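pipeline stage [seq->struct] | target=Pentatricopeptide repeat-containing protein At2g30100, chloroplastic | organism=Pisum sativum | residues=498
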Amino acid sequence: MAYLQGFTPTLKLGFVFSSLVSPKQRHPLVFPSSKCGFSLKFNDGSFKFQNPLIKGTKSVELDRFVTSDDEEEEEEMGDGFLEAIEELERMTREPSDVLEEMNDRLSARELQLVLVYFSQDGRDSWCALEVFDWLRKENRVDKETMELMVSIMCGWVKKLIQEQHGVGDVVDLLVDMDCVGLRPGFSMIEKVISLYWDMGEKEGAALFVEEVLRRGVSWNEGDPQGHKGGPTGYLAWKMMAEGDYKGAVRLVIRFREAGLKPEIYSYLVAMTAIVKELNEFAKALRKLKSFARAGLVTEFDREDVELAENYQSELLADGARLSNWVIQDGSHPSLHGAIHERLLAMYICAGHGIEAEKQLWEMKLVGKEADRGLYDIVLAICASQKETAATGRLMTQLEFASSAQKKKSLSWLLRGYIKGGHFNEAAETVMKMLELGIYPEYLDRVAVVQGLRKRVHQNGNLDTYFKLCKSLSEANLIGPCLVYLYTRKYKLWVVKMV
């Protein structure tokens, strides 16, 4: 006999089945928790029902806690549930035929418990899938039943991973799940990747994704334009979240070069990973240079510089390849702006001014306007590399800009010249700013004056220095000053008031 203890609003359903012979060994099996709260426990304790026709040598107790609005405090479990288990265990008829015949005699809770019963070790798990398929076709899959079946599936997958089964077995299970119409509101493929990842099986996660791509298993693509979704992109994103940027890039490229077809979104994730890797690499270089200036490490030699440049070049080449693949695979035009945006970020991190400027105009052509701050950063990079033509093109953007924006952009231009050591151009920029009524920052003015002073000692050219001092004095940014020049040939000092 099956029994039910009813409470309002919570019901506890306990079912105990036993064979004629009760074993002494205990085999606990608990599935991942869900809102349904099912748990299965094998035991050799008391039992309420005996039937020699039910297969198995172990007794099984099924406990379930569910919320309910049913006001009845107690109800009897029908005999239909036990008969259904008995008929399904015999396997003489199709599960759908058995359930169709007993449809009116089985409640929703009884059908859920049938699923739980056949999800145990030693039972016919395919029967559980067929029961769910029948429920779906009969439109009897409610939210609770769906959560239960998803919990059962996750338990099966987790067990396969723990027992070191091949990724092919895991993919087979997902295919079976799809065949019976088990489609939860999230990607089961992503869930499996997370299970591998959380259990420390990172290589297993990569092999699983590779098998999914090889078989062409479908997944939730997200929106129709391909902006989201897909196993490769999801795994690459998880790798990137842990700081393994280069690993994420290698993963996507490896799958593509192996003849597989990763989703377009994964290429964008890999390009983002390249941006982050270049940014971290640039930070590391700056830190090393500061250590070298402090005498903590040796200065970079030619070989070190070449290694750094080659590493950057390889990353940029990978980024260019990924962007080409996005376009080759027929991506939606709306993605083209995202491609150029990532390429722009790559070239900025690598300090490649000309290439970065090109991406700014490419973004304009596809209708995606870059932030004004990015124009200023590229302007500074081009100025530091003394790319006169590129700097001139970018400066045309300032014709109709506000005073505040002009000051900001000209300050970036000035700092670019200072960083590149181009102090004549920096002085001209300061004088241009003063003509427009814009006062450069104090530290910028000092850097330019000191830079020009060093140049005077090297080449004796005073013209630019005089002009700058005069402009600063007229703007009341410096007081009157005396300029001293000593001519060794004539042993003569020349003094001029500026």
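stage status: PASS
auto-comment: Confidence is low (pLDDT under 50) at residues 1-75, 221-227. The longest strand covers residues 59-67.
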